[in-house]
Design goal:
alpha/beta, Alpha-Beta Plaits, 10 strands, elongated, Homeodomain-like_sf, DNA-binding, transcription regulation, transcription
């Protein structure tokens, strides 16, 4: 909804124009009235102004000064000056700033309405999705390094796109590697953080290590890097040759290994931080990046090599072992990828989306059905059940729900869930618990929405003669005006301001039937500033004027 502010030091002019605009069916706007520049400034705190209509010549603060202050606060606010002939050249000068129009007061209502339509069309164009996408593309280069890191980490966690999609993403994100060729991988570890102990310093340290590595490697190899987890990072390299052959693969490894020791030394010297590295002995397909990174992580952490400033090559039997167990690895990796997305389940629960929760658990049932057999599979099942149980317990504890949902959620049942006997039944039990949480949240949200609408309606009926703008009503329930407007319409099928008008008309009819108040007095009692606007609105809603209605019911 557009917020439109009218400012003029003549209250009659402001009220007349506001009344005329409120009768326009196509204008979905909240109208704020002010009778001086200072009063307008005082109302800035009520929310963003999208369109300002102001007189130029006003005592105290001029319309020009007000427009400057408005656009300083909201640069995208459109301004329409209502001006006389004497201000014509003055207004033309201001128009050069952009987003500003003017209307001569002598041109009448139609010219003002035309200028408003023009401004609203301009706002709509700016909000148009194509314009947003265009601006996003223009600004994309600023975010490219972060997007590169996120996408490469996604690949290293097993979330691999199709070849065509991967080629397109590499081009979009300007990743200096070939998505079609195998890639050499090195995994590094920060052995001590030195002076980079604060969380904000860690990103700087990763970036500094990457810069050092890039300086050594960029002349001979294509290079990309990203943080893998806390304390570890991944380097990806490819030769400059168009095809990887056995000799080229070994040459690439030797180049990487030869520079690795120099990079370690430079990091220790320049950053005062020791690092360790393990280098894959052969390149891997992008589809195998996750299994290779996971294997290198485990090797670097294990056995006699677990010291400081380690520089090692991948163990010779690791690749063959990985190839033999790749099916099991990907089943395991899919499961862990699911567990990393529990924030998605949290969102579904919070919103009370039961169907989405059920679909998510159905997907989990499929993933858990292909886990490897034997002890490894049983441990993975245990990992799954423990993670989901801990998630649900944490969810309940954080939201203080244990005493509210009663027997539907049993903490004892979570602790005693069977794992080895029947994983399918266990997942089904966890899904039922999640469903009960979603059902409870959905029901509470519906109750809160009903209560909120009730409070709004009670306030409207009790304070009908006061300001009942969307901004005022939204403050009552601590929501933003646009969201309140949408929520009320979706819930009741009626616009909130339509409801306010309906209550005003019903109260007006009651007063016309049961009292001898003058039309002007009744207008004030139902919160309308002028008898003329009240009469026009009443006739629009009922088909007769207030006086005609009174005469018809009195008879």
């Amino acid at each position: 909804m557009i917020r439109l502010m009218l400012v003029d030091d003549e209250p009659l002019a402001v009220n007349y124009l506001a009344d005329a605009l409120m009768e326009l069916d196509w204008l979905d706007a909240e109208i704020i009235k002010a009778y001086s520049g200072m009063e307008a400034l005082n109302k800035f705190g009520d929310g963003k102004i999208d369109l300002l209509l102001t007189d130029i010549r006003m005592p105290g603060m001029s319309g020009m000064e007000l427009a400057d202050l408005t656009r300083e606060k909201w640069p995208r606010c459109r301004v329409i000056f209502l001006t006389g002939y004497n201000d014509f050249s003055y207004a033309q000068t201001a128009i050069r700033k952009g987003g500003i129009d003017y209307v001569l007061k002598t041109e009448g209502d139609e010219a003002i309405i035309h200028a408003i339509r023009k401004a609203l069309d301009d706002i709509a164009r700016e909000l148009d999705s194509e314009e947003i996408l265009k601006r996003s593309r223009e600004q994309l280069h600023v975010a490219v390094p972060s997007l590169q890191r996120d996408y490469l980490l996604q690949l290293a966690q097993g979330e691999v796109d199709s070849l065509d999609a991967r080629i397109r993403r590499f081009a979009e994100l300007e990743i200096a590697l070939d998505a079609r060729r195998p890639v050499h991988i090195a995994l590094g570890r920060i052995d001590e953080w030195g002076s980079f102990v604060l969380p904000g310093d860690r990103a700087l340290l990763y970036y500094s290590i990457q810069n050092i590595a890039e300086e050594y490697l960029k002349e001979t190899l294509n290079f990309a890097a990203f943080p893998y987890d806390r304390g570890r990072y991944v380097w990806l390299v490819q030769s400059r040759a168009s095809e990887e052959r056995t000799s080229a693969e070994e040459h690439t490894y030797k180049l990487l290994a030869g520079h690795a020791e120099l990079i370690q030394a430079a990091t220790k010297s320049l950053l005062k931080v020791p690092i360790s590295l393990i280098l894959a002995s052969a390149p891997c397909l992008w589809e195998d990046l996750a299994i290779r990174a996971d294997s290198l992580k485990i090797q670097l952490a294990g056995g006699a090599f677990n010291g400081q400033e380690v520089l090692m090559r991948e163990l010779p039997d690791a690749i063959g072992e990985e190839r033999r167990s790749s099916k099991d690895f990907f089943a395991e990796n899919d499961l862990r990828a699911y567990l990393r997305n529990l924030d998605l389940l949290e969102t579904y629960l919070d919103k009370g989306e039961r169907e989405a929760c059920r679909n998510l658990f159905a997907e989990l049932a499929v993933k858990s059905s292909v886990l490897p057999v034997g002890q490894e599979g049983e441990l993975l099942k245990l990992e799954l059940v423990v993670n989901l149980s801990a998630f649900l317990i944490t969810y309940v504890n954080k939201r203080r729900l244990a005493s509210l949902i009663g027997s539907a959620f049993s903490l004892e049942a979570l602790i005693q869930l069977p794992v080895q006997t029947d994983l399918t039944a266990t997942v089904r039990h966890l899904a039922a618990m999640a469903d009960s949480l979603a059902e409870y949240n959905g029901r509470k949200q519906a109750e809160q929405t009903t209560d909120m609408i009730g409070r709004i309606r009670q306030y409207v009926n009790e304070f009908l003669n006061e300001e009942l703008s969307l901004t005022k009503l939204s403050e009552l329930v601590h929501l933003s005006p646009p969201y309140l407007s949408r929520m009320y319409k979706q819930t009741t099928g009626q616009g909130l301001l339509e409801y306010v008008t309906e209550v005003r008309m019903n109260r007006s009819k009651q007063l016309l039937r049961t009292t001898e108040h003058k039309i002007q007095d009744i207008a004030g009692l139902v919160g309308l500033d002028s008898a003329a606007y009240f009469t026009r609105l009443f006739k629009k809603e009922t088909g007769v004027t207030p006086l005609e209605y009174r005469e018809s019911v009195v008879k």
